[in-house]
Design goal:
Shape of chain A: flat
Order of helices and strands of chain A: HHHHH
Distance between the termini of chain A: 46 Å
Helix content of chain A: over 70%
Number of domains of chain A: 2
Order of helices and strands of chain B: HHHHH
Radius of gyration of chain A: 21 Å
Largest interface: A-B, 5 and 11 residues
Oligomer: heterodimer
CATH topology of chain B: 434 Repressor (Amino-terminal Domain)
Helix content of chain B: 55-70%
Number of domains of chain B: 1
Largest sheet of chain A: none
Structural class of chain A: mainly alpha
Distance between the termini of chain B: 7 Å
Radius of gyration of chain B: 11 Å
Largest sheet of chain B: none
Strand content of chain B: under 5%
CATH class of chain B: Mainly Alpha
Number of helices of chain B: 5
Number of strands of chain B: 0
Number of helices of chain A: 5
């Protein structure tokens, strides 16, 4: 297959991929909803398509962070706070989820630590990516001045 | 958007196909640019300028009232 170098066709190609992506996502959702209705809601998470759907959502969420940071930076031009704030907020979220896990009827300390740790890691990673992107944008702005 | 690409191309005795080959794009894109139906990137504008030996101003500048 020939590599497309024409910028207009490259953009058109991306638009086509977007349409195909929307169609694919709708189909996956349709299959999962049908699965949930016909075999029970717990069966949905056993389907490999569920992993594909969640994985795609996570990837697009992280990729869109860059857009969110640019949009936020345009409207709020103040310098971001220190990094330890992110660690602290992630820790608080982890603790809250641990406490919620312990308070459930079948909650054990082991489950609480695992869930709290995972939530802490997920939040810290997301916050770190945003922190890094905002820092880079801020440094780029500094270079311009 | 309006531009003078067609005029410059004819002054250089180039066909749309030749200009397309020299700029590395398709003839259809050249045709759409000339009709003002596709706005090229700055890089492509410069590529076209280099081929027809004109400046960006000469090819793509339009006054605010025509914008």
């Amino acid at each position: 297959m020939k590599i497309i170098r024409d910028e207009r066709l490259v953009i058109q190609n991306l638009r086509n991929i977007r349409i195909a992506f929307v169609f694919q996502t709708l189909c996956i959702l349709g299959i999962l909803i049908y699965d949930g209705i016909s075999q029970g809601i717990t069966h949905v998470t056993d389907n490999p398509l569920w992993l594909v759907f969640i994985g795609t959502s996570v990837i697009i969420g992280y990729l869109n962070l860059r857009i969110s940071v640019d949009e936020y930076e345009t409207h709020n031009d103040k310098k971001q706070g220190p990094y330890y704030k992110n660690v602290f907020i992630s820790f608080v979220v982890g603790v809250i989820f641990s406490v919620i896990t312990i308070l459930t009827p079948e909650g054990t300390v082991r489950d609480a630590v695992i869930i709290g740790g995972v939530m802490f890691g997920c939040f810290l990673f997301s916050f770190s990516v945003v922190y890094y992107l905002r820092k880079r944008r801020y440094d780029e702005n500094d270079d311009e001045e | 958007m309006k531009n003078n690409v067609k005029l410059a191309r004819l002054q250089m005795n180039l066909t749309q196909q030749q200009l397309a080959e020299k700029t590395g794009i398709t003839r259809q894109t050249i045709s759409l640019i000339e009709k003002g139906k596709y706005n090229p990137s700055l890089k492509l504008c410069l590529d076209i300028c280099y081929v027809v030996n004109k400046s960006l101003n000469e090819l793509f500048w339009i006054d605010k009232e025509d914008y």
